[in-house]
Automatic annotation (TrEMBL):
InterPro entries: GntR_C (IPR011711), TF_FadR/GntR_C (IPR008920), Tscrpt_reg_HTH_GntR (IPR000524), WH-like_DNA-bd_sf (IPR036388), WH_DNA-bd_sf (IPR036390)
Species annotation: Plantactinospora sonchi
Alphabetized SMART domains for the sequence: FCD (SM00895), HTH_GNTR (SM00345)
Family annotation (PROSITE patterns): HTH_GNTR
Domain of life where this protein originates: Bacteria
UniProt KW keywords: DNA-binding, Transcription, Transcription regulation
Protein's name in the database: FadR/GntR family transcriptional regulator
CDD domains given in the database record: WHTH_GntR
Amino acid sequence: MFVRGRTVPVTDEAINKIKAMIVQGELTPGSRLPREADLADRLGLSRNSLREAVKALSLIRVLDVRQGDGTYVTSLAPDLLLETIGFVVDFHQDDTVLQFLEVRRVLEPAATEMAATRMTDGEVTELRAILAELGDAPTVEALVANDLRFHGHIAAGSGNRVLCSLIDSLSGPTTRARIWRGLTQEGAVRRTREQHEAICEAIEARQPEVARAWATVHVAGVEQWLRNALGEPEEPTTPA
């Protein structure tokens, strides 16, 4: 098959055809695919290429192959499909950590702003309880673990499952940088706790813009520290 002068591999063609069936509503979440021979004939594919396409789509959680039962379309829930991002993220190199922090600086303040208006009173109470779990003199490792739970709870509280899944996928690569900062930068632990408290208070007070501002300061602080530690130039500031 040719598209704009290039050959599309038969497996890609098969993937595209199955994808089209899902997008067009012929196959819906939870539905079972027709028998392999029937589907291959219907789509004009070899059974081999269809088999490879099914294998590829099962790896990215679009299809669920159940031995002895058949192949089904998964729920297609965002958190399920975005799990594959976490797999890709796991292969990051140390020199890309800054890029992950830059993405966090874009996404987490937005999630925090949304959480300030969408979190239930019970969820806010749980957020406060997460902060209260730390003792007066936590280790850096305990603080970072608490930090991950704190931000994960806020992301979930945004009410946006796609945003929550993206933030969760991006948390891993920055964990070591957070620990490194806590061990080497004077006052980092104290500042982290103060900023968490300020974020929590803004969410409790239902002040989305303040919550967003504190979240930006919080993530940007880690990013700027890492830039300095790596000898990277500071980002240019945007004129007011």
